[in-house]
Amino acid sequence: MHRRDRRIALSVSAALLAAPLLTACGSDAHPGAAAVVGGERIEVATLQAQVKDARDAQAASPQAAQLLQTSGDLSRRKLNGLIFDQVVDRVAEENGVTATRAELQQTRAAFVRQSGGEDRLAAVLLQEQGVAPDQIDDVVRRNVLMNKIAAKLGITETPEGQKKLTDVFTTASKSLNIDVNPRFGAWDDSQVQLATATSPWLRQISQDPGAAPGTAPAGT
């Protein structure tokens, strides 16, 4: 992958950074739920639909074999994103942050321009993040909200700034009492992600809501 393409994938994903206990969920406490966040269920069927969309897109790609081989943890990655988006929504609500339609359109247009077109953006996101074309708007929304939250809180690209951001999201995460079906792992409030996940969402945030993909802090 070209260096520019890798920067695109990193920044677009900027949209994702209980004490860490494994609690009962799924077949025992919440039948049919992949997780329960703030009392709201994320159904297994919802998760499976997202995975299927991504798998269908992968299967249609010229790199199908490679994509399918390297994305065995897709269910956990998708669930991680679904939960994280609800944490983002909680932090945004608490700080009076919203994403307007114009902001979403402008941000997506910027990503398209700098990736070299809509098809190239879709290809990069599918390869790097397992994002299906019809899921790109969710990534854009996450990116806009994360950047606006950072701006509202005065987050800087320093260790202190990142700690402040992590602390805010950890507090919101704990307040949601996130309960994950054990088949998908356990939610870690301190990292604001599934313990099995590998996407350091909070450390990939761009400081400019309209910034081009690739402006994540160094060292992420």
Task: Please provide a written account of the structure.
This protein is mainly alpha-helical. It has one domain (3-199). It is built from 8 helices and 5 strands. The strands form 2 sheets. Strands 2-1-3 form a 3-stranded antiparallel beta sheet. α1 packs across α6 (118-129) and α5 (101-115) packs across α6.
Average pLDDT score: 81
- What's the order of the H and E elements? HEEHHHHHHHEEE
Helix content: 40-55%
DSSP summary: helix tally: 8
The major beta sheet can be summarized as:
3 strands, antiparallel
Q: Tell me the number of strands.
A: 5
Q: Could you give the distance between the termini?
A: 18 Å
Shape: globular
Given as residue ranges, the uncertain stretches (5+ residues, pLDDT < 50) are: 1-27, 205-220
Main β-sheet, spatial strand arrangement: 2-1-3
Number of domains: 1
Rg on CA atoms, Å: 17 Å
- Strand proportion, as a percent range, falls in 5-15%
Coarse structural class: mainly alpha
